[in-house]
Amino acid sequence: MSWDELTDRLMDSGALSADWEEIFRALPRDRFMPTRIYHDGEWIDRATGPSRWSELACSDLPLVTQLYEGTDTPSSSSSMPTVVATMLRHLDAADGMRVLEVGTGTGWTAGLLSRRLGAVNVVSIEVDAALAADARARLGALGLRPRVVVGDGMLGHPAGAPFQRLHLTAAVQQLPAALIEQCEPGAVILAPYGTAFCNGALARLTVAADGKSASGPFVADVAFMWVRNQRPCSGAFDIEDVRYSRSEIDPATIADNTDASFAIGLRMPYLFRQSIWASYDRYGTGRFEIWDGVSYAHCRLADWQGEHAVSQSGPRNLWDEVTAAYRWWQRHGGPDLSRLGLTVTTAGEHRAWLDDPNHVMR
């Protein structure tokens, strides 16, 4: 598929808005991709596999561009074009607005913003000095020279403030006060947001008139790599004094439902989960595990109504709590992401809400 064909698809789907079409076509993603892409467990090198490299660069896929050293865990990537187009549409940046981007990555989004708003109005922060240097070189080769700063994006860039738009390209569990404080009243903050239980959704927050808070709805289902200093750490726990019971709910209704999982995560933000195949279990079944670093629970995916389907240990009955959170979600009509929102204050409060900022989720 060519870049123009992909752009046509994005226009047809509504992901890409008309005001971004010309710029999107003029700055294809391959102009910003490194020579090596990590995909399906292997590195694709442009020099040795040019056709495959070009195919991936023009695809509607997220592409890993860097791994944490000694692991196969991604540390940087190029987001799928559908997501980039969707975020630009929700950012709603008008000509001449000043934008702060947190997470330069390959430099592609910074390039799109620079072409639209003027490079003088774009500041992009990247924590990795090598990535920043590479992005700066790619941008410069195309005649685009936004300010690319090496630093911790969670601290923002006070020297360039105030900003009218703030755009994060990595997921957060906590939005720092510094970022709100560097925005003008009425500014829009677009941030991938999630919890350890579910990552996550795209929050579109508007900064209040007094500059002391930002609030708004979740507008899209997205999942991004975490900001490096906010990666969830599950901790260790011991499984002892196990309590057995039946389950009131089918765990698949949570495991397979992003809306339910996200709502549960907002109510229980420090709870971890995973679905695994427990071959050592005498039932030989998959199970849904949850833990908080101290307490642990799991529910078998098959025979979930069985007498010993649920196992819970530690000071909390986590499966009971998750069941109660799921029942809350059901009672409120099974709201999708668009009915949920977030308010963040410069004092550090994060209040998730349903339908209205005054209807805080408890």
TrEMBL record:
Its EC number is 2.1.1.77. Keywords: Cytoplasm, Methyltransferase, S-adenosyl-L-methionine, Transferase. CDD domains: AdoMet_MTases. Gene3D superfamilies: Vaccinia Virus protein VP39. SUPFAM superfamilies: S-adenosyl-L-methionine-dependent methyltransferases. GO terms for cellular component: cytoplasm. It comes from the Bacteria. The keyword Ion transport does not apply. It is found in: Cytoplasm. Belongs to the methyltransferase superfamily. L-isoaspartyl/D-aspartyl protein methyltransferase family. PANTHER family: PROTEIN-L-ISOASPARTATE O-METHYLTRANSFERASE, PROTEIN-L-ISOASPARTATE(D-ASPARTATE) O-METHYLTRANSFERASE. This is Protein-L-isoaspartate O-methyltransferase. It comes from Kitasatospora acidiphila.
